[in-house]
Amino acid sequence: MFDSITPDTLRATGSLKWTAIPGTIGMFVAEMDFGVPPVVSECLRARADSGAIGYLPRRMADDLREATAEHMSAAYSWKVEPASVFLFPDVLAVLRETLRHLVPDGPVVLPTPAYMPFLTVPAEEGRELIEVPSLVEDGRWVLDYDGIDRALSGGGLFILCNPWNPVGRVLDRDELAIVEQIASDNGATVFSDEIHAPHVFDGVHIPYATISERATRHTVTATSTSKGWNTPGLKVAQMIVDEPFRDTIATPAGLIEGQINTLGVEAATAVYRDPGEWLATVKAELDDRRHRVAEGINSIPGLSTFVPEGTYIAWVDASGLADRVESPVRFFREHGVSLTDGAHCGTGYEKYMRLIFGTTGPILDEALERMTRAVASLD
Ligand SMILES: Cc1ncc(COP(=O)(O)O)c(C=O)c1O
């Protein structure tokens, strides 16, 4: 299905991923190289043909609330009331409005490594950020529960990212239950970013808010079709909250709803009502790629990674190159592969890199070959 995709066809689209750093394979931004599902292109084409690209009508917003609830029920057996779904342009807008209106006091507690903007948005909102470095146990990244408990002792907002960008973990019920206990004990709110939920390979995605009644009440869930179905440029995300957050956020969310892209709402509604076939095809591709990326990276001297359980992101430890390479990300960019600098994912991760593997087999192989050759050139 994706055989015709090549670096040339991707560059010709003019996408950020393929044009921002010329001469390199773009693996630094969380987009996939697989285009969008037919349901998205068809509905966008139909709307363009109709010329009806006006401000967002209330009826369409309500339709997306309903479609979101239907999808959460069908995909995760999560009963969400449409009135609990609020629309924002993106997940970071959900976070900002959470900080402004739902959790106006206390620190923001963030397990690292983390999605880069989670490290900068709290300060932009005038808030204290407490980073809690995560641990590696039995060959996988795990949360440092004691560290999180200490950081949350004064309450505040805990940012949970599950599936976890950048380490690719999918937290299981026991892990989520520990988070729930800590948040409840400390009277904290949990911001649960579940944007990567459609891409789970090992285990299942469990919406954090479904873990218990306490979790339902203390959680702000943020999600979007943007990762699963590759639509980030359409700018629409969903916040899901229960009472009493619902009443507090209704007015600010209502004001922001006017900024949302009408086309994005139409596409997200269509995807939630028809999520299946394309997603299954893409997941089969990614399932192959996640093993291929781990095998390839682990065969390069000085680099290591774990097989991601979810997402299309691999977290690569390049500390084995430390005595020969000052900045791994600059080094690999000079050798034709653009990755994300781990330093942007939290303090102390300068020797790590984030690799987006949502691409075709031949392109991933070429990137791994370039990285292999780059390291060999150090000898
Ligand atoms: C974990 C996570 N959260 C949020 C976002 C932001 O997505 P969007 O801007 O489409 O809402 C991303 C994008 O890469 C992400 O990986």
SSE blueprint and pairings:
Blueprint: H1 7-12, H2 16-19, E1 25-26, H3 38-50, H4 58-76, E2 85-88, H5 91-102, E3 108-112, H6 121-124, E4 129-133, E5 135-137, E6 140-142, H7 145-151, E7 157-161, H8 173-186, E8 189-193, H9 213-218, E9 219-224, E10 237-241, H10 245-256, H11 262-273, H12 276-298, E11 313-317, H13 328-334, E12 337-338, E13 340-341, E14 352-356, H14 361-376
Parallel strand pairs: 1-12, 3-4, 3-7, 7-8, 8-9
Antiparallel strand pairs: 2-10, 5-6, 9-10, 11-14, 13-14
The structure holds pyridoxal-5'-phosphate (PLP).
Spatial order of the strands forming the largest sheet: 2-10-9-8-7-3-4
How much helix, percentage-wise, in residues?
40-55%
The CATH top-level class label of the largest domain:
Alpha Beta
Task: Kindly estimate the percentage of residues that lie in beta strands according to DSSP.
Answer: 15-25%
- The total count of helices amounts to 14
- Total strand segments: 14
Q: Which kinds of small molecule does this entry bind, naming each only once?
A: pyridoxal-5'-phosphate
Low confidence ranges: none
Order of helices and strands: HHEHHEHEHEEEHEHEHEEHHHEHEEEH
CATH topology of the largest domain: Aspartate Aminotransferase, domain 2
* Major β-sheet annotation: 7 strands, mixed
Tell me the Rg in angstroms.
20 Å
> What is the CATH architecture term of the largest domain?
3-Layer(aba) Sandwich
How many discrete structural domains? Answer: 2
Choose one word for the global shape: globular
Q: Please identify which CATH superfamily of the largest domain we are dealing with.
A: Type I PLP-dependent aspartate aminotransferase-like (Major domain)
Structural class: alpha/beta
Terminal Cα span: 40 Å
Let me know the average pLDDT.
97
